[in-house]
Amino acid sequence: MKEKIGIFVGSFNPFTVGHDSIVRRALPLFDRLVIGVVGDHVSKPGMVPAEARMEAIAKLYRNEARIEVKPYYGLAIDFARSVGARFIVKGVRSVKDFEYEREQADINRQISGGEIETILLYSEPQLSSVSSSMVRELQHFGVDVSDFLPTPNED
Fold it and tell me: Residue 113 contacts by C-beta under 8 Å, 6 or more apart in sequence?
């Protein structure tokens, strides 16, 4: 039986408790989940280098052998193909997110010839307002953001 692989991609600048929730809820669906971190070719204000973002995420899941963290460049479907994944996992916080992700899923299905499917997971209600940009803005103003950032399990 072929291994069931999913990808979860983003800039993760920073990786939040909302991202962690999606990863932990998606993991039971797959044999392996690859977290694709947008590489340094993307320039956003305050973008932490990809290697640092990847290290922080890998540290979170160091005790979970089914999770892998890799850099990715270009289209998510190309990244999915490169790691043998047939599924893209996306988190959805709002109607606005849903519409955007639905359109992306439709295009990805078309250009992948139906090989790549998108799975949408809705955010947990208490996390629906958490975003990387919100965390960055709070950090900018000196607010303690530790409640919005996941900590590694000490298994």
Answer: none
C-alpha 86/C-alpha 114 separation (Å) is 9
Handedness of CA 65, 85, 83, 7 (dihedral sign): negative
Q: For residue 123, give the amino acid letter.
A: S
Condensed to tens digits (0 to 9), the pLDDT of residues 29-48 reads 999 999 999 986 666 667 88
Tell me, yes or no, if the pTM score tops 0.70.
Answer: yes
**Exposed / middle / buried, residue 83 (Cβ in 10 Å: 0-12, 13-18, 19+):** middle
Task: Say how far apart CA 146 and CA 135 lie, in whole Å.
Answer: 9
What are the backbone angles phi and psi of residue 50, rounded to the nearest 5°?
Answer: -55, -40
